[in-house]
Structure formats: C-alpha cells, structure tokens
Amino acid sequence: MKKSILLFTLAAALFTTSCAKKPAQPEAAPVVQNEQVAQEEVNSVVKTLPASVAGKDVVSKLAEIYKGKVVLIDFWATWCGPCRMAMKKIDEIKPELEEKGCVFVYVTGETSPLETWTEMIAGISGEHYRLTNEQWGTMCRSLNIPGIPSYLLLGKDGQTAYDNLSEGGYPGSEVLKNNIEVALTK
Questions:
Q1: CA dihedral of residues 137, 140, 145, 149 (deg, nearest 10)
Q2: Fewer beta carbons within 10 angstroms: which end of the chain, N or C?
Q3: What predicted TM-score, i.e. pTM, was given to this entire model?
C-alpha cells in the first residue's frame, strides 16, 4: 500500500511539473518588468576609498566624507545570511529616516565577490563601499568587530553616536531608529 501511494505521488509530481504545465512566455514578462521597476526606485550609489587609505583609517575617512550628516554604517558581506535578513528589517524604517536626513552607508570587503556584490547592491538603497582585503581585515581588527552585521552610527560632528561593534549582530530596528532620531536632533 505504501509503495502504491509513493508511486502515485511521484507520478503526480512528474505530471504536474512537465513542460506542458509551464506558463507561456507572455505571462512571464510582467514579472521581469516589475523587478526592473523596483530596482529603478532604489537609490544605490557605489563609492570608493583609495587603496592607500589604511584599514585603521576607514572610519575616520568616512566621518570626514559625511561630516555634517548623520550616517549609519552597516558592516556586512554578500555571503552573510544574518546581514541580508537585517537589511530587510532596516528597509522598513529606512525611507522615513532617509527623508529626515540620515545617510545609509554599506561597507564590505573582497570576500564579497564583485559580481555578486554589484548585483545585490542594485536592490539596496544607500551608498556602498567595497574595501580591499587588507583594508577590511585591518579595519575589523582596529574596531574589534567580532562578526557581521555590525553597525556604527556617526553624528553630524563625525563622532560615534551609537555602535554595536564589540558584540555585532542586528540590534533591532527600534534601537537603530531611536539612536538615529536622537542623532538627527543634535
């Protein structure tokens, strides 16, 4: 009896996934168009830091670049599942905070393959930096970053307004939002 049920299930699976059941090409086109529209709405900007900027100086260089603005720096990698999940959570609060003046900066290293990184950031609103392996490693050591994702919030004065660098992980949208809003008022 169990063999009969198994054979019936396998036959049904093969029949329902056959070429005859595939949707016609015109039905697939709107899905592609919707994805293109969604990507066009994302403001993703690639920025660079010269390789001559030492890893220990990356944050101070970013503070210099964004002086006068509140900046949330997200240290992440394309292969990091928790990083990608956290980005989806941040996306829920990001539009409101961007409108208020917060800049979202994403920093990764060469462990994120260039092609994968380029494809992924097309869907992530913000300013994106990809450091050399040397810069990334030195920066992580100098900041005592044990893992990613990790976050650093710079106030308008370029000083640290909040960070979770020593513990890493996603601190939660409310923690980030509250700290960003406080920094925006200073």
A1: -80
A2: N
A3: 0.77
**Terminal CA-CA length for the chain:** 73
CA distance linking residue 44 with residue 37, whole number of Å: 14
Strands ordered across the beta sheet of 126-130: 44-46, 126-130, 102-108, 70-75, 150-154, 160-163
Residues in the chain: 186
Summarised one tens digit per residue, pLDDT across range 118-147 is 999 999 999 999 999 999 999 999 999 999
Q: Are 186 and 156 in contact (CB under 8 A)?
A: yes
DSSP 8-state code for residue 167: T
Between CA 127 and CA 106 the distance in angstroms is: 6
Structure tokens at 101: 């003046």
Q: Provide the β-strand partners of residue 151.
A: 74
Contact 154, 63 (CB under 8 A): yes
Pairing relationship of beta strands 44-46 and 70-75 according to DSSP bridges: unpaired
